[in-house]
Fold:
Amino acid sequence: MRACVNHPDRPGKWLCQKFDVAYCDECCRCGHAEGYCKFRSQCGVRQICEESNAAQAPPPDKSNGAQALLPGEENRAQPRLPGHTGRSARAPAPGQHAEARRCSSHTPAPAPSRQALPLAKPARAAYRRNLPHLQPADKTFFVTFATHGRWQLPEAVRQAVIEHCLHDDGVKISVHGVVVMPDHVHMIFTPLRDDNGNVFGLAEIMRGIKGASARNINRLLGRSGRVWQEECFDRILRSSESARTKVEYICDNPVREGLVQAQDDYPWLWREWAEGQE
Structure:
């Protein structure tokens, strides 16, 4: 299966007929494919597309009494005119029919000048599952999520977890720091706004990170089952707290746990002013 053009780690389940690129389910829901040609896998929509194209096609030219040919019917037998020798006309040059079709009245819409950004799903300022969650706009969050049953993450997949945490950096969130511990992950980030000015919701952000990373971890390890706990712990940084100070704090966790002597010795952390500048 082809990969999604916007998310290479996700399968592209929907194929754009016009631009020959694939999209994942999230892109279709978020509006990545809005305005593009309809998808082959949606039969009803494709039928609408074909009817629209047929409606826009130019009427056949009956001025010379000859029946208009459909594409691909050029080589069918034609009525022989007086004086006709029976020899077929010279075959058109390669690409001639394609050029003629490009010049028809049905001109495809130009490709977008830049890749469309996802739109934020409606987010509530506060919601509760097992834990309460608050999300005022334009605030920085300190988020922790743990493995299911406190399962120890193998070292072979910890770098992949960091990459998933950074996947939407600059798109949905601005990431300030990440630390992957043996059985939990700390993140500090600020949710961004979409092109319509709507803030990306905390639930949408964490669902994307945890869902994609869990599937990748299971694939890399050849296992199945849950990877993360369903809930996460989140706290809004106070105005007196700087994001860098809090990132330094979480990056000292491996030192406090006795895993390394200095935070720079721990390979599974990311800081926007250090690793983010490489």
